[in-house]
Write a structure and sequence with these properties.
Arc Repressor Mutant, subunit A, binds FE2/S2 (inorganic) cluster, 67 residues, mainly alpha, globular, two-stranded antiparallel sheet
Length: 67
C-alpha cells in the first residue's frame, strides 16, 4: 500500500456504525485476520445498527484483494 493510500484509508470509513476507519480493517488483515469474524473481533465492527451489512462487504473486498 502506497503512503497516500494509507493516509486515505485513515480518513475513510470502514464501519460507519461503529466509527471505525478503513485503515483499522486493513491493519487487522495485515495482522492475520482472514475472515469477517476475525476482523470484527479485532476492531469492534459488525454489531452496529446495520448488523454488518455495510462493513461486511468492505471486509470481503479487502480479503479478496489479498488472495
Ligand atoms: S457499518 Fe459496520 S455494523 Fe454497520
Amino acid at each position: 500500500m502506497q503512503p497516500n493510500e494509507r493516509t486515505m484509508a485513515g480518513l475513510k470509513a470502514g464501519c460507519i456504525c461503529k466509527g471505525v476507519k478503513l485503515l483499522r480493517l486493513i491493519e487487522a488483515i495485515d495482522n492475520g485476520a482472514t475472515t469477517f469474524a476475525e476482523v470484527a473481533a479485532a476492531t469492534g465492527i459488525g454489531d452496529g445498527p446495520c448488523k454488518g451489512k455495510r462493513c461486511r462487504e468492505k471486509v470481503r473486498q479487502l480479503l479478496a484483494g489479498r488472495r
